[in-house]
Write a structure and sequence with these properties.
Keywords: Carbohydrate metabolism, Hydrolase, Polysaccharide degradation
CATH architecture: Alpha-Beta Barrel
Pfam family, one: Glyco_hydro_10
Organism: Candidatus Kaiserbacteria bacterium RIFCSPHIGHO2_01_FULL_54_36
CATH class: Alpha Beta
Protein name: GH10 domain-containing protein
GO molecular function: hydrolase activity, hydrolyzing O-glycosyl compounds
Low-confidence stretches: none
Structural class: alpha/beta
Strand order of the largest sheet: 1-2-3-4-5-6-9-10
CATH superfamily: Glycosidases
């Protein structure tokens, strides 16, 4: 009897795997490429962020953007909002006919993950939540009339525990749901939630968002192991996406963070050019693009535009910028 039960279980698992494989989304013939842009990262590299942002729109001609509305830059003084940075980015995006994912919340792209104004850092978590509600409300109310915005991203990889726990603390899932509901109450556009592609389970973000985005890091580096490459086949992304769809229904999905810059443990400007290029050279750049294409996501946001510009302007290495320019030019021909 036990043997029969085991056979039935094994058969069920095999049938489930076969079903997944047969119903996977095919690899798209054409991928739409976007880009994530961070004013913080541009400044960390000693660049004028306005110059970099203008170049990605006017020279690269990227037309799908992810932009963080950093709390500490939008509200550096309590209840005193400075909209100049976001106004510049969103007005230019709208003028160029670009489509924007605008990210709001405490945890947003780029280290240290949680971006909190100095004045709010000593508040209790309950106190921070009050201020976060006000900041999110202010951002959405100001920009909901901007036609460039297609999605509101709420927090960044909120379920991921592997990074920045010391800065962010544990996830308050009830408050995350409250943030999502708040954005929904202010504007009809969909909410995007994100999770790590390599380390995330995807369940929470996929289930709770209107759309889902994940990340892809092919090359890693740490002091003990040096540089290493993920062993996950691209098929894993397709299987995970299909599994989420079966359990929670079809949703728009993105590869929202496709890493095309070196993984460093020190500030980029403190790392030698040789070290930077050993961890992300132009051959790896093209390898990552090709690997990502096989994940089946038809919209992919490249990560590293500030570094490509930095190499071009500061180190006379334009090959990354030029390669990205060709990618976006192919999109423009669609």
């Amino acid at each position: 009897m036990l043997r029969l039960i085991l056979k039935v279980l094994v058969a069920g698992v095999l049938i489930a795997i076969l079903y997944l494989l047969l119903t996977l989304r095919p690899v798209p013939a054409q991928v739409t490429y976007g880009v994530s842009f961070s004013t913080l990262q541009a400044e960390h590299l000693g660049l004028d962020w306005r110059e970099v942002y203008s170049a990605l729109l006017n020279d690269l001609k990227a037309r799908n953007l992810r932009i963080p509305a950093y709390w500490q830059r939008t509200e550096s003084s309590r209840d005193a909002y400075d909209w100049r940075e976001l106004d510049f980015q969103l007005e230019m995006a709208e003028t160029r006919g670009a489509r924007v994912v605008l990210a709001v919340g405490r945890r947003l792209p780029r280290w240290p993950e949680c971006h909190i104004p100095q004045w709010a850092q000593d508040l209790s978590w309950e106190g921070q939540k009050i201020e976060l509600r006000e900041y999110i409300t202010a951002v959405v109310q100001r920009y909901k009339g901007n036609s460039a915005i297609q999605y509101w991203q709420v927090e960044n990889e909120p379920y991921l525990k592997a990074f920045a726990f010391d800065h962010c603390g544990p996830l308050d899932e009830e408050f995350l749901k409250e943030e999502i509901a708040l954005v929904h109450s202010l504007d009809a556009r969909p909410v995007l939630l994100t999770d790590s592609g390599n380390l995330g389970k995807w369940v929470g973000p996929y289930k709770n968002g209107d759309a889902f985005g994940t990340s892809l890091y092919l090359y890693f580096w740490n002091p003990e192991l040096g540089q290493f490459k993920t062993k996950l086949p691209a098929l894993i992304y397709r299987l995970k996406e299909r599994s989420m769809e079966i359990f929670f229904g079809p949703k728009k999905t993105f590869l929202i963070e496709l890493s095309l810059e070196p993984w460093l443990v020190e500030p980029t400007q403190d790392a030698s050019l040789e070290s930077q290029l050993s961890r992300m050279d132009i051959d790896k750049f093209h390898e990552v693009i090709e690997y990502a294409r096989k994940t089946s996501f038809d919209t992919q946001y490249l990560w590293g535009v500030e570094w490509w510009y930095y190499l071009k302007e500061k180190h006379q290495h334009p090959e990354f910028w030029d390669a990205a320019k060709m990618i976006y030019a192919q999109n423009a021909k669609k």
